[in-house]
Specification:
The chain is of the alpha/beta class and about 475 residues long. It has 15 helices and 19 strands. The protein has a 7-stranded mixed sheet, sandwiched between helices. A 5-stranded parallel sheet has the order 9-8-7-10-11, with helices on both faces.
Length: about 475
Amino acid sequence: MDTDEPRFDVPGMLINGEWIPTGENGRSEVRAPYDGSLVAQVPAAGPRDVDHAVRAAADALRRDDFPRADRVRVLEQTAAALNDRRDHFARAIALEAAKPLKTARVEAARAVETFAFAAAEARRFTGEVVAMDATPPGAGKTGFTLRVPVGVVAAISPFNFPLNLVAHKVAPAIAAGCPVVLKPASQTPVSAILLAELLDGLGVPSGWINVVTGGGGTVGDALATHDDVAYVTFTGSAEVGWGMAAKAARKKVRLELGSNSPLIVDSPSDWRTAASKAAVAGFAHAGQSCISTQRIYLHHDIADDFLEEMLPRVEDLRLGDPLDEHTDVSCLITRDDTARVKEWVQEAVTAGAKLLTGGEAAQNGVFRPTVLEGPPPNTRVQCEEVFGPVVTVTRYDEFDEALHLADDSRYGLQAGVFTSDLGKALKAARSLHFGGVLINEVPTVRADQQPYGGVRDSGNTREGPAYAIQEMTEPRLITLQP
């Protein structure tokens, strides 16, 4: 269904405290992935718009007119205002990202927590005392460090969490005292603009929050390589992220990238809980999460029982319109992604995988939740990030074999392990090369205050307000000589 009336009337992009309705390249449409309806019209920015925004941010940094007490107030008031408007933001998320409404509400609630944690950290982050007199050259000196802003932050966010992943970049930057230029994903800019509108209304001084809307190849590259940008925070694909880091080699470029998260279910373990959680964790938001459960490794002793428990739950997931209160799984972000996921599934089946459920597209770009057993290691559903509602199952005999299979990946974001054996749990925690190892939990869990990030091709940073603030500031040594 197409309509010429936008669902949201957004003011444009925010640069230096002014709302600009049209960009260097005119305007572009944001359409709902599910039914093609017009969600909003937004500016299509270009390099000149980026330069304008970055210069405004650099001027704000030089003015230094947003003291910590004011930043704390804004963060706290933003958390309260977001809480009051959760349903409004959830509807925007559901429309622009095709995230089921009940899941979108969870994202909106998490954004409230992200701002609240950033406010708490803004009150307390500080430097440290340095024991200068521990060596003869420091005798008589008093030393301490200040945490000072690293500079202008370029924040480039993805489509799949269009509010909370923006919050994870913007809120710590405000707390740290870094002016921000935000480029939201071109498919999902509405939530970010609504958030910027809220921040602007709470009295953020001009230039401290800027939002530039447009494509990654124009706006994203221009932003990441601008001379006045000191810090780039990017969430997205490994290929784009590492390419951006190569172009901006002299900057601090912090990447939160993809994964193909493994889940090991051992025997003995609480495999029933693992099965019920995996039936959701592999398919929430149609599998379009960096930590979506993708590869499941089952001990032979419990594999049949696990599948008997899990498969009916997967088949009972409700498919359809993201605005329907009962929908569990809606469409992928584009029809090309639906076609890609289908191609990968067919490739695996041709290579010898057994299709246990799903494997086909439904209406409006929805792909049926799919479980494959035994795909060869070199098939894309097994070795790459599907970013779709597909889970693979592999059986194993020995726990060490499961650890090896789980770790045999170019990614390393989060892994989950279900086991009743404390020794095995500790061994997994020590040996799995991932940013997080979750014991008796699926890997598709993130608390917004945790250090979140990966290794290998999954990135090079840790998000979570306290950890992001540390990265967005740098220590400045001060010594006092009487």
